[in-house]
Amino acid sequence: GKRVSKGKDIQTESQIFNYAYSQLEKEKAQVQQGSKNLTFSGVLKMATNQETRKRPLIEISFRDLTVILKGNHKILLRSVTGKVRPGRIVAIMGPSGAGKTTFLSALAGKTVGCKVAGTILINGNSVSIRSYRRVVGFVPQDDIVHGNLTVEENLWFSARCRLPADLPKADKVLIVERVIDSLGLQAIRGSLVGTVEKRGISGGQRKRVNVGIELVTEPSVLFLDEPTSGLDSSSSQLLLRSLRREALEGVTVSMVVHQPSYTLFRMFDDLILLAKGGLTVYHGPVKKVEDYFSGHGIVVPDRVNPPDYYIDILEGTMKQSPSLGVNYAELPVRWMLHNGYPVPPDLRSSIPPNATSMIRDDQNPIHHGYYLDYDGDDADDDRREFRLAEEKSFAGELWQDIKANIERKRDAIRHNFLKSDDLSGRRTPSIPKQYQYFLIRVIKQRLREAKTYAVDYLILLIAGGCLGSLTKANNATFGFAAYTYTI
Known about the structure:
Rossmann fold, 6-stranded mixed beta sheet, 16 helices
């Protein structure tokens, strides 16, 4: 092709960034004006227009979702039913051991070493979420950023590898600049993230960069595992406002949160509240949660944060009093009865006396055939006692660990290498192009670590010289065999 001059390159880059910043200014002006298009219904209507949007809208519904750990058969999540919808921010809350991260991983198709039972539907169809993996973002609790790259380089690497290959560079610049602006990363965009040995940006800033790495991919579904941990109130609200902008464009946002402030709590649309054992206590709009619990005699005292109060009750740390009106162990069963869900046999002892008529004997195997530990059959009881006795012995524990590790490795291989049909409609860069991006990234990282490598080689050189000067190497002292093995 025709070679373009250097001046032309500079002019083109300038035009690209001018386009991106002008679009950002227009978006900010629209937000400040508060136009009708920025309401949920208006933006969602605009989001469904294929001329202005290419990423699909995804609704995830689940029924009787149960997760059991392989090996020791521990139930991590049990009979969770509901849905997460486009344009809504869902908060997943509960005490420690409630299965919040397990639930998030099950929805994202990332459970390893576990048996998943129940039904998960994508837009009403029985397909795997992995079919939409190119438009699904997942922010884990641990940092996934590269410490020897700058904030902007981390974001650009993710954008280049995961955005559509045919997307113009000007639009990619706009996406990255929008994320940097919305997450408040302008002041540190050129700073190295840092490592354990070499300090860089703060922990809260690293958390925002983690979220930004997924936001620049323009996902249709976004899962986040405790993204506000380590953030102050102001940074948490900044993050939620950024996620709100994504939700207004029709993105399905689900996130695990731990003890949010009242202001932050009111910024969520829906709440999934889990009790210990992975049972659902509430699933619905945030604005109706206090009315629901008030109907069961649980009233939040004045000047008390509602989510903190509910979690204290589910944790069992709140002392029972006549004013509380209900035992915390009854809350999962009350939720099942409230929605007409069948109650598992082992939980029927927690049913309030006045609610017995609401029980339905559903023949769903998730409640009767799957929980062999609870169905009351004598033969199953004998098998359970034998299995428990086997697990208590040293050989039994060793065998369970070996079997669990094998199954975990098998699940990891299946998760990473098993192909599924791509329904996302997004064509990402080819393997040679991605190899080029990885190669450029590795070269940058190695060049920035050149001083460390130079010091290491200098130490080896000095140590080798010292040892060589102390030893007289000849045929008599060193030997033919030593020369041979040295070669």
